UniProtKB/TrEMBL annotation:
It comes from Rhizoclosmatium globosum. Pfam families: OPT (PF03169). GO terms for molecular function: oligopeptide transmembrane transporter activity. One of its GO terms (biological process) is protein transport. Coiled coil: none annotated. The chain crosses the membrane at residues 61-80, 87-107, 157-177, 225-247. It is a multi-pass membrane protein. Belongs to the oligopeptide OPT transporter family. One of its GO terms (cellular component) is membrane. It is found in: Membrane. InterPro entries: Oligpept_transpt, OPT. Keywords: Membrane, Peptide transport, Protein transport, Transmembrane, Transmembrane helix, Transport. This is OPT-domain-containing protein.
Length: 263
């Protein structure tokens, strides 16, 4: 049995288990909704897997550690600004691809530990997962509020106590996410639409075949569409930010509704 057949068989068993546990859903809309979710997922997520593809390698650990340090430092520092903003993990997703290709080209191929072969999709995903942890720690605001003289003023708190508080709160969150995986991630009905665009970007970078419809009228690949949209948004962002900032104050909905003319 191939990996794809195993995947289909597992999904069928999940539907059967759902019907057995909830007989009232036998002919109800919920079962149809789950099947519709499966179709959407199958259209984007690749249905094949190569277990021999390297994932946790020197390259993924190196780039993942680099990005999690950079993003954690940047986002923590930027969070103290009056107009705070953050740098998302999608930056690491995009930039780590050419970095991974560069390491695959320059690292010695004679040492499999350093260079197991071409930069793989699984390595890229590992880097993104690590980079996704590069946000502002939950407990850092509490530590700052406790130490600052203008707030709590508890200057007797040591560095190790502050570090321990931040680590404990972070590990508690990861532990809770692991406990709830069975209910919030594993079931077919609990799909997260926001991850579909990320998966589509991964498959476009690495040219992985998915369940695309044969004979689609759109001949442009996802990779080509991404770069066109990326360049177009980058060029247009100069217009409201620097060339014509007044465009930021234009309320199109009010103008369309006839309220922009003073009526």
């Amino acid at each position: 049995m191939t990996t794809a057949d195993q995947y289909v068989s597992e999904k069928e068993h999940q539907i059967d288990d759902l019907k057995h546990a909830h007989p009232e859903l036998e002919d109800d809309v919920e079962v149809d909704d789950i099947k519709e979710v499966e179709e959407r997922i199958d259209f984007i997520v690749p249905q094949t897997d190569d277990p021999s593809t390297p994932a946790f390698t020197f390259r993924s650990v190196l780039l993942g550690t680099l990005w999690v340090v950079l993003l954690s430092f940047a986002n923590t520092a930027l969070s103290f600004r009056t107009a705070a903003f953050s740098v998302g993990a999608n930056i690491a997703l995009i930039l780590s691809y050419p970095m991974g290709l560069f390491l695959a080209a320059v690292l010695p191929k004679s040492i499999p530990v350093l260079n197991p072969g071409p930069f793989s999709l699984k390595e890229h995903v590992c880097i993104y997962i690590m980079a996704s942890c590069g946000g502002v720690p939950y407990g850092i605001d509490n530590v700052v509020a406790q130490i600052m003289p203008t707030l709590m003023g508890n200057t007797d708190i040591s560095f190790m106590q502050s570090l321990g508080f931040v680590l404990v709160t972070q590990f508690l969150g990861y532990g809770l996410s692991g406990l709830t995986r069975r209910f919030l991630v594993r079931p077919t009905a609990m799909w997260w639409p926001s991850t579909m665009s990320t998966i589509a970007l991964f498959t476009s970078f690495h040219k992985v075949e998915s369940g695309e419809v044969v004979g689609n009228r759109y001949k442009m690949s996802r990779f080509q569409f991404f770069w066109i949209a990326f360049i177009g948004m980058g060029i247009w962002s100069w217009m409201p930010s620097f060339i014509a900032p007044v465009l930021q104050a234009v309320a199109l909905s009010c103008l369309i509704g006839g309220r922009g003319s003073g009526e």
